[in-house]
Amino acid sequence: xxxxxxxxxxxxxxxxxxxxxxxxxxxxxxxxxxxxxxxxxxxxxxxxxxxxxxxxxxxxxxxxxxxxxxxxxxxxxxxxxxxxxxxxxxxxxxxxxxxxxxxxxxxxxxxxxxxxxxxxxxxxxxxxxxxxxxxxxxxxxxxxxxxxxxxxxxxxxxxxxxxxxxxxxxxxxxxxxxxxxxxxxxxxxxxxxxxxxxxxxxxxxxxxxxxxxxxxxxxxxxxxxxxxxxxxxxxxxxxxxxxxxxxxxxxxxxxxxxxxxxxxxxxxxxxxxxxxxxxxxxxxxxxxxxxxxxxxxxxxxxxxxxxxxxxxxxxxxxxxxxxxxxxxxxxxxxxxxxxxxxxxxxxxxxxxxxxxxxxxxxxxxxxxxxxxxxxxxxxxxxxxxxxxxxxxxxxxxxxxxxxxxxxxxxxxxxxxxxxxxxxxxxxxxxxxxxxxxxxxxxxxxxxxxxxxxxxxxxxxxxxxxxxxxxxxxxxxxxxxxxxxxxxxxxxxxxxxxxxxxxxxxxxxxxxxxxxxxxxxxxxxxxxxxxxxxxxxxxxxxxxxxxxxxxxxxxxxxxxxxxxxxxxxxxxxxxxxxxxxxxxxxxxxxxxxxxxxxxxxxxxxxxxxxxxxxxxxxxxxxxxxxxxxxxxxxxxxxxxxxxxxxxxxxxxxxxxxxxxxxxxxxxxxxxxxxxxxxxxxxxxxxxxxxxxxxxxxxxxxxxxxxxxxxxxxxxxxxxxxxxxxxxxxxxxxxxxxxxxxxxxxxxxxxxxxxxxxxxxxxxxxxxxxxxxxxxxxxxxxxxxxxxxxxxxxxxxxxxxxxxxxxxxxxxxxxxxxxxxxxxxxxxxxxxxxxxxxxxxxxxxxxxxxxxxxxxxxxxxxxxxxxxxxxxxxxxxxxxxxxxxxxxxxxxxxxxxxxxxxxxxxxxxxxxxxxxxxxxxxxxxxxxxxxxxxxxxxxxxxxxxxxxxxxxxxxxxxxxxxxxxxxxxxxxxxxxxxxxxxxxxxxxxxxxxxxxxxxxxxxxxxxxxxxxxxxxxxxxxxxxxxxxxxxxxxxxxxxxxxxxxxxxxxxxxxxxxxxxxxxxxxxxxxxxxxxxxxxxxxxxxxxxxxxxxxxxxxxxxxxxxxxxxxxxxxxxxxxxxxxxxxxxxxxxxxxxxxxxxxxxxxxxxxxxxxxxxxxxxxxxxxxxxxxxxxxxxxxxxxxxxxxxxxxxxxxxxxxxxxxxxxxxxxxxxxxxxxxxxxxxxxxxxxxxxxxxxxxxxxxxxxxxxxxxxxxxxxxxxxxxxxxxxxxxxxxxxxxxxxxxxxxxxxxxxxxxxxxxxxxxxxxxxxxxxxxxxxxxxxxxxxxxxxxxxxxxxxxxxxxxxxxxxxxxxxxxxxxxxxxxxxxxxxxxxxxxxxxxxxxxxxxxxxxxxxxxxxxxxxxxxxxxxxxxxxxxxxxxxxxxxxxxxxxxxxxxxxxxxxxxxxxxxxxxxxxxxxxxxx
Length: 1460
Prior knowledge:
There is one protein chain. This protein is an alpha/beta fold. The protein has 38 helices and 22 strands. Helix 12 (485-497) packs parallel to helix 14, helix 22 (833-846) packs parallel to helix 24 and helix 33 (1231-1245) runs parallel beside helix 35 (1293-1310).
C-alpha cells in the first residue's frame, strides 16, 4: 500500500466538522454527502503506491521560474470548473432537478485533495486545497461560469492569511469539456473547434495571467468522458449541444488519429500563446483519452473514483509536453510517477523543448529510379496452361488482394510528419496490388507483373477505400482481422464475376494475395478466445475455401503474418519522433507489455502459432485437389529486423507518419520480397526480409520458368507431403504410445557407414569420394535442404515440427559439429554400438538445444553390415550370439538412460543384394578392391559353403533382432519403446533393360547407397513408422513411387506394439534343446595328426568324462516316480550321446557332425550304456585318481579303441562337493589338496597317447547361496548334507572364507594349461576351460532366476542346462588360451555354437594360441582373470545360488543328501 500523509485524515476531519469556506457540504436527495465522498477518496488513495523519494526532487531554494518548478515548491492546490454539472438548460428544466451545486464540488474536491496530498510528500506545508464554487445561473455559459469561478478563486487566495499570494507557487487546475464531439472531427473543422474553445477560455486564462503571480495552470480537458459517462462532466464551453457533421470514417484508426490531432492542436496553440512567455506563469494542456471504449453496461465510470482521475492527472504532469502518450485507464491501479533527478520539475512547453510537429510539413521524398527487369523470357506460355503448376508469370491476367490497412496502404504516400494523412488509403502504392505509375517509379507486384503482361487487370490505383472506383480488386479493409476475410473473399469473387472489368472469369489466370494478422496480434490480449491461433487459422480457411470452391485458374499467395515484435523497438526509442498515443492505441497488446514478461513471451509464441497454423493449413494439401488452383505460403515476413539509421536508431522513414503502417519504401521492399518468394521453390523460400537491402527483382529460371507451387517445387530427390493434420498433441504426451509426428523434437541415429552417409553425394566414378560422410543426406538423420529437395526422415518430421533438432548437416565425421546427433561411424560393428550410445546420450544431455528429460526423441539404429563383411575372418567373434549380445547391450543403455524415446531398429542390407550389385556390373564396380571393401560378402564363390554359411548367419542376425524386440524387454516403460522397422528385409533391385543393376542407386563403390537410394529408404522408414505392427511393409522396391503416407484422424500416432493392438506371435513351444549346426569347415585333417596342437574336431574318435553327478546328469529330466532322481547319462553335457545335435545339445553330438563314428559317449540311463562316462554321483576331487585309473583301463580293454592311433577328448569337472564339505575339514578339502588330487588324475591320464584333456573350472558356489524365489526358495544352507552353506550366512566371516576357497580352487587348476610336464609330449595336452569362472544365474523375463535350467531338486542341471554347458565348453575349446570366455551365457539360442574357421581350424592349446613367450612361460599369474561381477543388471551368482531344495515330502527331505 502506498504512503499516506499523517495529516490527511486530520484535515478531512476538520473540513467535515468546521464546514467552512469553499468546502462546506450540502446534502441533496439520493446523493452521498461530502463527508461520505471524501471517505471514499481516502480509501481509494490508500490503494495506490507512492514510492517517490522527496529528497531526490526537492530543493532548498524555491524556484524563481515556472519552468524549473519542483513539486516541493508548490504551496497551494486549487481548481475551477466543475468535474460534474447539472443538465444543460437547453435540454432540461432546471426546476425539475433540485440540484444544490454540491455534487460537482464533491468530485472536484476529491481530485484536488488527492493532488494536494501527493504534493504534501514533497512539501509538508502545503495548504488546504480549494475548489471554487462559482455563481452558476441558468443563462450563463460554461465559459462565463469559469470566469466567475476564477474571480472567486483569486479572491479566496488573496484573503487566505496562510498563503503568501505574491510569492507562493500555486497549482491551479481548470476543468472543461466540449458540449459535443466535434472536437474529434479531423482537418479544418477540428482546428476551428480548438480555436473556438481557446477563444472561450481566453477570458478566464487572461484573468489568471493578469491577477495570479507564480502559477502553474493545468488546462484539463475531460471531453472524452462526455461520450461514455452518464455524468455531464466538466464545465461545458457552450451552454447547448452543438451539431457535428464529422466525416463518415469511424474506424479505430480514425478515432485514434483524431484524438492525437486534437491533442496536438491544443499543444501547438498553447505553446505559442502568451501564456507561456513569462517566468512566473504557464498553462499546460493535460489531455484525457481512453485506451479502450467503456462498455455502457459496465457502469464502471471513471470519475466515480476521483482518486483515479487525480493520479492520472499527476502522472500526465510528470510527462514532457508533446509526449503525453499514455491514455487514461479508468479501472487500472497504477503507481504514481515521480520526478527524476534529470528532470525534477513540472513539465512546461519550454523545459520540454517542445516543437510543434507540423509547423512545416516536409516534402514528399524524391522517388528514385526503380529496378529495370532484364529477364530474357517475358513471354507467356505457347498455349494457355491448364495447370497452375505450369504457370508462367506472363500468363497472369488478373490480380486481386485481401487484407487489412497494410494492403489498403494507409499512409503509404503521406509526407513525413503528416499524421492526419495516414487515414488516406494509397491503394495505388500497395505492395501486393497497387498499380500507380510503373516499375521505374512505383515498385509493386502489379508493376512487376506488368513488365511481363502489360494488359494485367484488377490492380488498384489512386486513393480511396475498398468501395472506391480505383480500388478494383483490392478488397482489403483497414482495421480488418482474420475474421473479416470471408466477407472480403465473397466480395472479391462477386467483383471478378461482374463483367464490368472485362475479366474472363473462367479462362483468365488470376493471382490473389492474402495478408492478415497484424490487428489480431495487436488485440489478442483484449479477447484471447476470439484471436486464438485456432480461430485465426479457421478464419483464413473459410476465406480460402470460398476461393477454392468458386474461383477457377487461381494462384493464391498466403503471406505469413509478420513478426510484429520488432515494432516495440521503434515504439520504445524516444529519440525517434513518433505519435505514440496512436501507436499504443492501435497495438496495445504488443507495445504496452513489459520487457521479459510472461505476457510478452506468450505474444511471441502466439505470433509463431499464427505462422505455424498458416503453414499447416496450406501444406495439408487441402487446396491442391484441383489442377487449376493452389495456395502457396510466402514466408518472407516470418522474421523481420527493424531497419536502422546510420546512428543505429530505428529508421522511421520506412514507416508512415503514424510509425505503424508502411511507407512507400517498405511497400517496395514487401513487393520485392513477395515476388522473389513466388519464384523460390517451396522449402527454399526466403523467410527473413532485410528492409535495408537493395531491391532485387529476380527473373524466372530459364529452365523452370513457372511460379513455384508445392507440387512443382519437388526437385531431384525431394518429396511432397500432403498431410492435412500436422498438429502436435493438445498437450505434450507422457506415453510413447500416444506420440504424434509433430510431438517429436529430437532426431538421432546410430550405426555404420550407411547411416554416416558414406558416398551418398559422390559423383559417378569418383571412388575416393566414397569416404566422404554426407551426413546431411543420410536417410535417417540428414537435414540438408528441405523435403522438396532432399528426402530424409528429419525433413519429413520438420514438416510437422519446424523446430525439430538433432539432425546432421553437410559432411564430416561423427565428432564434427555438423554430425550433431548422428553418431554413426563408418565400419562400425555391433560391438562398438554401445560406445556410440554413450556418446549420443552425453551429447543430448550437454546440448542446450535438447531438453533431455522433456523432449521426445526418435533414434534410428541400423547395424550389422560391417559385421557380415568381416564374418569369415572370425566366425566366432561375429557370431549371431555375439551380435545379439552387443545389440542388446546398446539398447539396454538407451532403455536405461534415455527418457521419452522411440527407437527404430532397422535391418541391414542383405549380403545377396550387395553381391548382386557388385558382381553384376564388373565394368562399373571396383572388383579388384572387393576384398578390401567387403571381403566376406563379395569374394566367396557362388554356391560355395562359405556363401551359404554367410546367408545363414545373416538370417540369424535378423532373427536375433526380432527375438530381442519381441522379448518385451523394452516395453517396460511408458515413455520408451523399440520398434523393428522391417522395410529393408527384402529389397527389389532396379534392373536396366540389359538385365544389369541400375547403378544410379549406388555410390561409386557399388556398395553404399546413393542419394536416390537414401530417398527411398527415408520414405520406406517413414511409411513403416506409421504402419501398425503386424502389417508393416517388409519389402522395398527401389523403383516404386513410394508415397509419403500421413497420420489419420483415427490413427494419428507413430505405431508401437501397444497402439497397434498387436500381440507378437506366440513362440512355439521349445520341443527340445538342440542346436542348429552352421559350420562348413568340418573336414578331417588330410592325415591323422601327430600333434595335439593341430587337432581338428573331425579328428576326435573317442570321448570320455570324469566327475560327479553334474556329469552323470542327475535329474536332467523330470522323474516319474518318488524315488531319487535318475542319472540321464545320455544327456550329459560333456559325454552324452542321445539323439542328434538338432534335438540334444551335447559335446559328443556336436562332434558327431564332424565324425559320425565317434565312440565313448553315454546313452540312456543304465550303467551298461554309460560308455566312457566314469563320473560317480557324490564324487569329490579325492576320487578323481580312481576315476582316471578306471577310465584308462576301460580304454585299454576296449576293442573299439585303437589306443595308440585314436585321438581322445576327455573332460574332467569336479569340486562342488568339496566346497560343500570344506568347513568340516578345511585341511582335507583345502585348495592345495583339491589341486593335488586333480594333478594325480591328470598324471594317470598322461599315460594315454593322443589325448586332449579339458579341465573345467569349478562353479562359483560360494558367491551367493540363496535361490531367487519360486519353487526353489529354500537357501542352499538348508540342504541337509551341505553343512558349510547351512552354517554360513551372507557377509559373515565364514561365507567370505568359502568365497576365498572357491576362488582358490579355480586359480589352482588354472595353472594346468601351463604346466611343463603336460607340454613335453606332442600328443598330449591339458587345457583349462574357464566358462564357469564367473557364473551368471540365468534370468527369466521378470528378472528372477530362470529355473528351467535346473532339475527338480534345484541342485542339478536340467537338459536345458546341460545343453548350455555343452555350448559353453565347445566354444571355450575354440577360443585361444588367454582369451577364453570366463562366464556362461545362459540365454536360449539355437545358433550359439562357434565354428572352426579356415584361419583357425584347430582346438586351441597353449601353443597354437600364439601367446607371447613371456606370458606363456609365466602362466596364469600374469594372465588376468576376472573376479565375479554383475552383468547387465542381473545377479552374479554361482549355480549354487539357485540350488535350493524343491519342497518335497517331509519324509524324503529329512533323508535326502546333497551331492554332485
